[in-house]
Amino acid sequence: MFLSIGDGQPIVTQRQGNGSYRNYYGLQVPADFFRNDTAVDLQNVEATRAMLLRDFYSDWDGEYKELIQHATDFRVWPLHTLAVEDVDWESVPGVTLVGDAAHLTIPNGEGVNLAMTDALELASKLAKFEGTEDLAVAIKEYETDMFLRGKATIGEGWKMADGMFGDSPESFLQVMGA
Questions:
Q1: CA–CA separation, 162 vs 13, rounded Å?
Q2: Which of 82, 85, 91, 144 has a Cα at 20 to 30 A from 39?
Q3: First to last CA, the chain
């Protein structure tokens, strides 16, 4: 993995299992940026490269620009997150959420761990209350702890976003505790 941070526009490069590389360009743009008439058509690779180099990475060093110049495919993958205060709702009998559905956050390296913890905790509560006989009680008890985990993780996700989309690498180093 390769991470470059600056000007609120990170570039993340990850090596894939087949030896190729996937680049992520962190752009802070309106939700409809790639859906309106003024945006570039992502299917037009040359136009997308030109737009990224002109509008977002024009003052970056050449080695970073090469990541864009050699890219062969572009997609929009928006990042969505809940606000910490939104992680607390009335329990609905017979229904609950786990993982990202329960506490959607900016990627911070904890997503799958949190989903597995949620699943384990929910299964433990169901076992404790003997399956579905006291399902509402099991869910309510699970959700009490899940809300606490979710709020903590979303808070950490917001810190990660502040670091990754900050104006300088120092903001990211602060998030990482360096």
A1: 19
A2: 82
A3: 18
Q: How confident is the model at residue 131 (pLDDT cuts 50, 70, 90)?
A: low
Q: What pLDDT, on the 0 to 100 scale, is given for residue 171?
A: 73
Q: What is the Cα 135 distance to its own chain's centre? A: 31
For residue 88, the number of C-alpha atoms closer than 13 Å in the C-beta half-sphere is: 7
The sheet carrying 11-15 orders its strands as 2-4, 11-15, 21-25
Q: Report the DSSP beta bridge partners of residue 4.
A: 11
Listed in sequence order, the residues at least 6 apart from 59 whose beta carbon sits closer than 8 Å to its beta carbon are 7
pTM: 0.72
Contact 169, 8 (CB under 8 A): no
Contact 85, 154 (CB under 8 A): no
Interior/surface letters 54-69, b for 16+ CB within 10 angstroms, e for the rest: eebbeebeeebbebbe
- Which residues are CB-contacts of 168 (< 8 A; sequence separation ≥ 6)? 5, 6
Q: Is 135 helix (H, G, I), strand (E, B) or coil?
A: helix
Alpha-carbon gap, residue 119 to 115, rounded angstroms: 6
**pLDDT tens column, 18-27:** 999 999 999 9
pLDDT digits (tens, 9 = 90+) for 30-79: 888 887 666 678 889 999 999 999 999 999 999 999 999 999 989 888 88
